[in-house]
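Researcher: I'd like a structural prediction for the single chain below. Treat it as a standalone chain; there are no partners to consider.
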Amino acid sequence: MTNRNFHVPRPAPRHNPNPHNDNNTPLHSTAKVPLPNRSHNKRGQNVSTHNVIPQPPTNTPSTPRQNDTSAPTASGRTGASASLQRLSHSTCHSWADARDRKIETAASSCVCHRSLCLSGLLFPVHSRLISSHGYVRDRTARAYRASQDTCMRYARVIVTRYGGPDELHVIEEDCPEPKRGEIRVKVLAAGVSLPDVMMREGIHPETPRVPFTPGWDFVGVVERLGDGVSGIQLGQVVAALPISGAYAEFICVPQRELVPVPAGLDPAEAVSLILNYVTAYQMLHRSAKVRAGQRVLIHGATGGVGSALLQLGRLAGLEMYGTCSARAASTVSEMGATPIDYQSKDFVREIRRLTGDGVDAVFDGIGGAQIWRSREALRRGGKVVAYGLTGSLSGGRLASPRRGGRHRFRSIAMFAYYTIASIFLPGRKRVVTYSIQWLKRAKPALFRRDLVALFDLLQKKTIRPLIAERFPIPLARDAHELLGKGSIKGKLVLVSN
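Model: Treating it as a single chain, here is the predicted structure.
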């Protein structure tokens, strides 16, 4: 067992009239100087190691016993303990030498100091380094804390004002610190979706005030724990739906928002489940309450939510029809649905021709007047599940001339109108609205349970999300421009370098 009662010399006077010794060697020289006997000081007094402060090397002449690492010390210990004394003393010099470098460089270059601190040998002196002879007070404490933190600076994307992709800018700033109950996560993958575009344009109900960081969903690694956090480990892979903030290298979120991700999953595929697949799963089984053998129509069948509806609808045994462009028809067919080219055909007439009396459910992410057209494709007792407003966009921009403002309540009023009006119209054809964030806030356990079930399906390879393309996080603007062009097959994902 290592004897902790070793001694380091007491400090020289703060104001030394003679800053050099007889050999003209500066007192703050970094040359190694042997330490005196660890059990007794120069006067032969016993020395306690508690609250002893490492000091700059003095010019005490060395003795053969002190230089001989193989000779036993006065306490009967061998040279290994004496080496440990010199190691602790020289370590302080390495920190002093690095005082003009970056803290992270000093922290990574002095592994010895960290190991000694962790073992309790030098822990009491972290905040008590003297400031004379080139030593800076608290430098070791700051560098030690920095050595435990892998995040110093980080990049994130912000929207400076409502508008097009040009309003997305990358900034670099100090890494965020998790508050009590929060966890800092290093983002591995963040989804890019049409709700991000609508928030950028200022028309989504969840649009924050500028400046803000977009990003509805992410998958990442737990990097730092805030106070009061328990039951989660550093390095654990987690997923969350923060609604905004995911276009960043690091993000701090409350622990209750995180869902563990099974090991071995591709982060890009896993992040596709959070917004797109949970939306599809809950619309099928919570809103429409579909049953095997029923007929459904899916608008935008090759998009992120549309492709998720096709995969989950096939598992549910549904007869599916999907609107898409002519060049995406083969993809829809491969996923088990009948494609309908919305550019050259009227989808209501085509549904009537193919089914005779219509479908049991329509999943409409377009919104506006399209909701009434979707209602016409229903059979008696059918239901339109309205969940989006992509019809308000044209080429990835707000179709209305009133751009650049925050109009987040306009869509809520529109959904309310169609929902209430459908109640009084004949034919028992209802319009219901779906919002993943509203349902999650009302029933958070339901969101967690559905996401865990989808992770299980992905792990078993029962479902396979379509990944259209992956972009580095700083290239979020390019991803938004591509999404605005339309005809994307699957999910766009931002990935960490």
